[in-house]
Amino acid sequence: MSGWLHLVVPMVVVLSLAAAPLSLTAAPAAPVLKTIRVALPAHPTLLDPGNHRSRITETILRNIGDGLYTEMPDGKLIPEIAESTSRIDPATWQFKIRRGIVFHNGDPLTADDVVFTYVRATQDGAMEGRTSPRKSLFVGVKMVQKIDDYTVRFHRSVPVSQYRMQVTAINMQIMPKRYFEQVGPDGFVRKPVGAGPFRFIEGDIRERIVLERFDEYWGGSPEPPGRPGPPPIDRAIFEFIPDPASRVAAIRSGAVDIIQAVPADMVSVLRADPGINVATTKGTNMLFLALNVTKPPFSDKRVRQAVAHAINYQLIVDKLYGGMGNVLGGRPFMDASEVVDPTLKPYAYSPGKARALLKEAGASGAGFVIDTAPDGRDLAQAIAQMLDIVGLRAEVRVWELAALRPLAQRGERTAVVDGWGNASGNPMWAYWTCGAEQAANFSLYIRPEFDKLMNDAQNTPSEALRTARFRQGYAMIYDELPIITLLVPQVIEASRKRVLNFTPHPNGRVNLHRVDVER
């Protein structure tokens, strides 16, 4: 049998050579794409710059599209699509737009696109008959006017500082007017187009988004470190991994290159890994417990105040966040906010006072569910344990964030642990989370006096009166507690050592404009 095999094999070889002439040159190898994979802690919503209020969504959109201004990790606001900014009068600001910028579909970016983008986001009913959920970021913008093809003016209802005008300019990615009108809102979210460093290739907001370098990218602002121009990487893939342990496992295995929202108890583990860098920076995401004021037991203010006294905020920061966070304790503003009220102190941890308030309200022993997303699980469970000590029975239920928020907005949840960012320290944060019909008003708190105070405050030219009105509004929320602010955690992110030029951003954005990877 061995001889038979010996004879057959050479014959097969000879026949193969006869059928296919020998090539003297090898086929060129397919190029290896420089790819970076980023794991985000939640799913995005619609990939529409004017139709979301999600940091996760904005992270992706900021890599697809550029804005008039952008914010650096150190908080500095720098021009991006805007070439220059000037004040025309106390309430009017003018932006000059850089020439030569094109969208991914080849259309030139002009003043028409800037006006379209901002009118759609700032004016009632301008988003296909509805009002943009981002409108509250631009309160006071009366009109956006085209002066010429590369000049736009913003008319405000009251005078505004250059800083506050620049904040307006960082909050939107410029959209291509002609393309949007051709494909409509549904077509746009299926294939978003911008003027940023990466163009959309494929993806699903439930799974992952794949972006590819835009070789005609205008280069980006000259101010950040690195060489202006198209990004050095070929492809960026955003993966959505809500479970914190799964994110950590993904970066340790090399399945992803960057992860956000590193659990504090995993920092030492990741720092011990020679292939991983861990970096932290100050945070701007305010975590809170929203209590539905339309449902028992939280329809009674005394119960809400009891909860505020039952929570040991500093212990949560120390044990869950490794000391990397700042206590809020019911104060509806960060210490770094533009307006603060130093007379409002964090609610004192006092189980005895909490029990007395519950007894007075007849709510001792009441039970309810705290709903949260995966990243809020440990925080919600810690709160539930502290409430059990004072006689409240709280069960924790975990959802995907994209599914939870619509339910909370409709008032279908009793208590929700969530976070709502305040990237610029805007004094309107309390209004976004407690104002009538606001996107993050999960408590269903409706108080016309509060709404009037906050809206009047931001439209008040007098700085002293403006501050006084904001503080009146803060005092109201601090007392009535439709939400109980908990803390502002530091941003903790990790990257593989092969990732170059990556710096965590206080606002949770992953800007890949100049990030590179070693092959």
Task: List strands and helices in order, with pairings.
Elements: H1 2-19, E1 35-40, H2 55-64, E2 69-71, E3 77-79, E4 82-89, E5 92-97, H3 111-122, E6 141-148, E7 151-156, H4 162-170, H5 177-190, E8 198-204, E9 208-213, E10 235-240, H6 244-253, E11 258-259, H7 267-271, E12 276-281, E13 285-291, H8 301-310, H9 313-320, E14 325-327, H10 351-361, E15 367-372, H11 377-390, E16 393-398, H12 401-409, E17 415-421, H13 429-434, H14 448-458, H15 463-480, E18 483-489, E19 491-496, E20 499-500, E21 516-517
Parallel strand pairs: 1-10, 1-11, 15-16, 15-17
Antiparallel strand pairs: 2-3, 4-5, 5-7, 6-7, 8-9, 9-10, 11-19, 12-19, 13-17, 13-18, 14-18, 20-21
How would you describe this structure to a colleague?
- The protein has 519 residues and is an alpha+beta fold.
- It folds into three domains: 32-64 and 196-282 and 491-519, Periplasmic binding protein-like II (D-Maltodextrin-Binding Protein, domain 2); 66-180, Dipeptide-binding Protein, domain 1 (Alpha-Beta Complex), CATH 3.90.76; 285-489, Dipeptide-binding Protein, Domain 3 (Dipeptide-binding Protein, domain 3, Roll), CATH 3.10.105.
- The protein has 15 helices and 21 strands.
- It has helices at 2-19, 55-64, 111-122, 162-170, 177-190, 244-253, 267-271, 301-310, 313-320, 351-361, 377-390, 401-409, 429-434, 448-458, 463-480; strands at 35-40, 69-71, 77-79, 82-89, 92-97, 141-148, 151-156, 198-204, 208-213, 235-240, 258-259, 276-281, 285-291, 325-327, 367-372, 393-398, 415-421, 483-489, 491-496, 499-500, 516-517.
- A seven-stranded mixed beta sheet has the order 8-9-10-1-11-19-12, with helices on both faces.
- A hairpin with a 5-residue loop joins strand 2 and strand 3.
- Helix 8 (301-310) runs antiparallel to helix 10 and helix 14 (448-458) packs antiparallel against helix 15.
- The chain is globular, with a radius of gyration of 27 Å.
- It starts with a helix and ends with a strand.
